[in-house]
Amino acid sequence: xxxxxxxxxxxxxxxxxxxxxxxxxxxxxxxxxxxxxxxxxxxxxxxxxxxxxxxxxxxxxxxxxxxxxxxxxxxxxxxxxxxxxxxxxxxxxxxxxxxxxxxxxxxxxxxxxxxxxxxxxxxxxxxxxxxxxxxxxxxxxxxxxxxxxxxxxxxxxxxxxxxxxxxxxxxxxxxxxxxxxxxxxxxxxxxxxxxxxxxxxxxxxxxxxxxxxxxxxxxxxxxxxxxxxxxxxxxxxxxxxxxxxxxxxxxxxxxxxxxxxxxxxxxxxxxxxxxxxxxxxxxxxxxxxxxxxxxxxxxxxxxxxxxxxxxxxxxxxxxxxxxxxxxxxxxxxxxxxxxxxxxx
Length: 344
What we know:
Helix content: 25-40%
Strand order of the largest sheet: 1-2-3-4-6-7-12
Order of helices and strands: HHEHHEEEEHHHHHHEEHEEEEE
Number of strands: 12
Strand content: 15-25%
């Protein structure tokens, strides 16, 4: 189930596409065009009445209204059906993060105050290249890429915390033992563990970058990998949301449209240097209208899920370039006045 903020921003966006004067009126009407159940209506009404998310409701509702009025979106035509994914991943091979579908045609992604664009397993990213289906090795990525450094770090942490009853091999840890070790470590590494962790970071970053580059080159998928990182889907969709400074109302191009405006030049992948394993990436492209060479910057943090040793690491993909500066993300035509944004 999506969290409260996600529920509010996505469903208030949907309500803004319907012909009601404000959020309160729309909630009172419980319009049948928005295909959600009674429990969802009740939850949304309770969140509105609670008053703590007034700004989220206002911003998302205004974005939906802008989509309703935009000439390159609904053009003032009231939807007959709005479907909500509710956090469920749609079936099929699609990279577009769709949250709403309008009249079986318009696909909408709602993205509010987040630079994190995906959280795949490292194997799915560095070996599967973000394909939505496939069979990837589910083994711990740290053990696969830096087994010696990982075991040295584990031994140091086990010794420093006095948990001598834990197995010698970290692969043998149970879920309960992992949680116990995480709790015992607290907020910082003890003893000589920081030195071992730095070695782990360097090794994981280097090997991850190498494998990613090699797999992209071997499969000749540089441009497609760039599109997957930029969330360029198989078909045009719309992004309605906000960052810390402004609302985002964008049309996201399909690969066909993307190539009309831009020329892909390179995907640069390199080991990063940070306080955790990291791989930096850049999509380098040429803007056809101006012939300027530009780039989109991002990075991948390869870090434990839910704390040290708790679960195998995930690959958290981040964008550093502003969303409305990504090639293929085109601003919707002018709508109503920009709403006030809430504090993060």
